[in-house]
């Protein structure tokens, strides 16, 4: 009896040791997500609204994302809606492996829109294929009704999906981009330089 108990304890110790080693050698989800997104740098992809209705502001318009720049710790992704080149998603790698998402909105003359730089920072390192961004204080101060916004991005080998949901609201925005087919790069987004 004592021998079998000792063997069971040794087995649990061995399993625990391997599990701990696996966790310490595994890179954080945010690092893998960042590396996979960086592989798309310089490429453009067309998207579509999921569950779109005629009331949606993007309905019937050509939607293109362009992974424009991938600098140290910063990725910019202009989101072109037809002839509107005012939107750029800006992702920044923060200390501790968290990712910050900001929405840079510009007018055609390059000046900042009154409502810009809203977004949030992931509350943990997330997963390699999905990152969540709850609204931050800057967003709450700028757009009080957006205090409960949660944005998330999913990324896999075939698609990139940008999502927005406001808690206690049935409305959601989901734009899915097909990563299997590159498209022509759109013009420089408003307010940015080549």
TrEMBL record:
Signal peptide annotation: 1-19
Q: Which UniProt keywords apply?
A: Signal
Provide the protein name.
Answer: Secreted protein
